[in-house]
Structure formats: structure tokens, C-alpha cells
Amino acid sequence: MQIPRSAFSKAALGVFLLVASACGSAAFAEDAAQSLWPTRQWQSSTPEEQGMDSAALANLVAYGTARSFDSLLIARHGKIVLDAYYAPYTADIPHVINSCTKAVIGTLTAIAIKDGLLNSLDHPMLDFFKGHSIENVDDRKKAITVQTLLDMTSGIEWEEGIEGGREQSLHEFGRSADQIKFVLDRPMSNTPGEVFNYNSGNPNLLSAILTRLTGMTAGDYANTRLFGPLGIAAPNWPHDSQGLSTGGGGVGLRPRDMAKIGYLYLRNGEWEDKQLLSPGWTDRPSTPPSTCMRRSTRACAIPIFSGPIQTSTSTWRLAIVASSSWCFPSWTWWR
Fold first, then answer.
1. CA distances from 278 to 59, 80, 120, 268, 335 (A)
2. CA-to-CA distance for 270 and 264, rounded, in angstroms?
3. What is the C-alpha separation between 197 and 291, in angstroms, rounded?
4. How many C-beta atoms lie closer than 10 Å to residue 1's C-beta?
5. Could you tell me whether strands 12-19 and 327-334 are parallel, antiparallel, or unpaired per DSSP bridges?
6. ω before 88 within 30° of 0 (cis)?
7. What is the mean pLDDT of the chain?
8. Strand partners, 271
């Protein structure tokens, strides 16, 4: 279903909103979704057949028109009940998901653990960069782990506008000839694990770590161990100046592809009776601090998610909500 944009809606640089659902609390819902794997294609259903209200969904579609959504997809119990696209977007047009790329990097980290390539989330970050000449090394930088990179609590000094300031570090990072070295050389502002600070440098370090562990870029690893098994065609994934897959943003996916990733989490990391993610990964809590929820002028993108995570801002909004019934990742960027 394609919907024309209203004349009064804001100019959107890019928007997608996805809802995926599986394993509802009712036994019939769990049984119905038990054998549904949308690897080849998603099955469709009426909203009422999946316990949803068509009128309420119609209101949501209208809301998307007023807010300049690019697409709106809802899947419940493993079947798509709403698949709407706002002109000029269509189902086959990939959407650059920007900071939701961080969630893909986090998912690949879980797969690396499952594959036996990463021994622990507590592994020190600097161990993966031996041989590099790194500035500002102190006890705090030595204490950075894979976990603190995932949680945005690395303690690396970084200004990305989270307290209303400028995106100074992000701009300098983008202009750097060696972006990984730029992040590694940053001074420390906090002890790792103590303070949440939104830092797009963290997932870029994780991308470099994944390459060190796998011998391939994060994009190639994803094509082999994540996108391939889920039936997602190899997406466009930009590289930095050193040939590494960008970790903080840039992946282009179609809405139905994103819904598959949500469905993977709702099935506890299992796909077609194979465990893709390390056991227990989807049960890990990862709720950002309340200060981030209140003050962020960008967004809080937590690579691991199993509980409610939401933040909204004047420039763009990212929300990820997951439970036993729903996974609701949405991304909005207004000018």
C-alpha cells in the first residue's frame, strides 16, 4: 500500500518505523508462530486474525502521513498485518538506518560470542589493538571492555550533543584520516562502566574488533552469519578510510529486512531451529540512564535490547521497545 504525502507534512530526510511480534502470551499465538520463519518471504494476515484492530492501525497510518513517515510495517505472530509506504518510497527501496546500524553491530557481537570468536564481553578493548600507537593510555582506558563499548559507558571523552552541546567529536571523527585511531587516542573523561555517554566512536571500535576476530569486515561477517541466514540480501554498508565497515551508521535495509532482525530477537536469537545469537543474549537488560532519556539531543541507541528503550528529540527520534510480544524499532529524522 502506497500513500501520498500530505502537503502540510514536514520535509523528511528519512524515516522508518517497524513493529515485529512473535510468541504472544496466549498459547494459540505461540503455537501459530512456532513454525513461521520469514526467510524467503513474510506471510500476510488481516489484523483481526492476529488480535489487532484495523481501525486503530488506520489511525496509525494517518499519523505517519502527518509525521512524514517513509514506511510503516507491523508484523504480529510472525505475519505482516500492515505494510504501508509513503510516496515516493516503496517496499523495495532500502533505507539508510543510520544509528540503528549500532544494533546490527551489537547483534554481530553476540554472534561472535556464539561462534567462539569472542571469549567474553569483559575482554579488555586494548587487547584487540596491540601494535597500535595509542595516546592518552591510563588505567581507565585499560579498563574499557567490549561490554562498556556496547553500553556506551566506555568513558572516552566525546561530545555528540547529548547534553545540548555541539557534535564536535562526531565532526572531527568524520574529518579524520584514520577514524579508529581518532577514537583510540581520545582522552578519558570517566571510569568505564560508570557514566552513559552517547558516542558513535564506540561501535566503530566494535566494528574494528569484529574484523580482528573474524578476518573480514563487519559487513561481510553480517552477510555470512546474520543477513544470509535471515534471507536478507547483502545491503550497502559503507567503509571508513581504512576499509572497515562503519559501526555508527550507514547500513541500508528494507523495512521487511529490519522486521526480520526484530523477529530474531523475539525468538530469543533462534532462526529456523538454529541458535544464531549466544544463549541469553536477548535477556540482557540494557536500559539507558534517565539523564539520557531526558536530555539527549540526539538519541540513545543501545546495541543490545530486551527491555523498553525510548528517547525523543527535536531533531530525530529513536525508540526500541521489545518484550515477549513486541519488538518496535523506529527511527525518525526531521529537518
1. 38, 27, 11, 9, 39
2. 6
3. 10
4. 10
5. antiparallel
6. yes
7. 79
8. 274
Chain centre distance of CA 279? 19
Query: What is residue 92's predicted lDDT score, i.e. its pLDDT?
Result: 93
Contact predicate 309/253, CB 8 Å: no
pLDDT at 248 over 90: yes
Count CB-CB contacts under 10 A for residue 259.
Answer: 24
CA atoms within 13 A on the CB side of 187: 2
Look at residue 274 in the predicted model and tell me its pLDDT: 94
User: According to the model, what pLDDT value does residue 190 have?
Assistant: 97
pLDDT, one tens digit per residue, over 101-116 is: 999 999 999 999 999 9
Q: How large is the average pLDDT for residues 260-275? A: 92
| SS3 letters across the chain | CEECCCCCCCCEEEEEEEEECCCCCCHHHHHHHCCCCCCCCCEECCCHHHCCCHHHHHHHHHHHHHCCCCEEEEEECCEEEEEEEECCCCCCCCEECHHHHHHHHHHHHHHHHHCCCCCCCCCEHHHHHCCCCCCCCCHHHHCCEHHHHHCCCCCECCCCCCCCCCCHHHHHHHHCCCHHHHHHCCCECCCCCCCCCCCCHHHHHHHHHHHHHHCCCHHHHHHHHHHHHHCCCCCCCCECCCCCECCCCCCEECHHHHHHHHHHHHCCCEECCEECCCCCHHHCCCCCCHHHHHHCCCCCCCCCCCCCEEECCCCEEEEEEECCCCEEEEEEEEC
The conformational region for residue 98 under phi > 0 = left, psi -120 to 50 = alpha, else beta, is left
How far apart are the C-alpha atoms of 316 and 334, rounded to whole Å? Answer: 6
d(CA 69, CA 94): 14
**At CA 28, angle to CA 255 and CA 327, rounded to 5?**
30
